[in-house]
Amino acid sequence: MKRALLALLLLAGCGAQGPKLTDGYRDPSALIGSTSRYDAARFKGAWVVRGSFDADAPATVAFVDSRGGPAFQFCDSDGACDDVWPATSTGQGRYALTGPDGETKTFWVLWVDEGFRTAAVGNPAGDFGWILDRKPTGGADRIRAAQEILDFNGYDISQLRMRK
Questions:
Q1: What is the residue-averaged pLDDT of the chain?
Q2: Which of 41, 94, 104, 144 lies in the 20 to 30 Å Cα band around 15?
Q3: What angle do CA 109, 23, 70 make, to 5 degrees?
Q4: Distance of CA 16 to the CA centre of its chain
Q5: In whole angstroms, what separates CA 23 from the centre of its chain?
Q6: E strands within 26-157?
Q7: Residue 107: its pLDDT value, please?
Q8: Boundaries of each Lipocalin/cytosolic fatty-acid binding domain copy (predicted)?
Q9: Domain 23-162, what fold?
């Protein structure tokens, strides 16, 4: 009888909901880390946002040099771009961005493939998460790997919206 009760309790636990997300797309209690493979020189250039959690995510992201330092520029699908956001390195693959209006955002490169063709980016707060790629199509295996990395870092990938 005790074994049957224990089995029922274990099975009940299997159907439990995961942790609740607060103010973001990831479980804040989950561990998160930036990639040790990160290389700023190889990360520079334009990236297409192939997947995002936020409907207002940019269409492209460019990592550029601006006024003597690194910066990010975000563009929409019509090609309209924000002013550059100066970036201060806070660690390997980690940046603090400052927007034109003084808004700040933390930007971490969670994973990048060996060829620097596909990346998963986000931050500990989980207020955004993107899958970036150098091209608008292709690389299905790398895109799947980026999804797995977001999941591993506590993101609720059921909310991830892929772009075609």
A1: 88
A2: 144
A3: 30
A4: 26
A5: 15
A6: 45-52, 60-66, 69-75, 85-91, 94-98, 104-112, 118-122, 129-133
A7: 97
A8: 104-163
A9: Lipocalin (2.40.128)
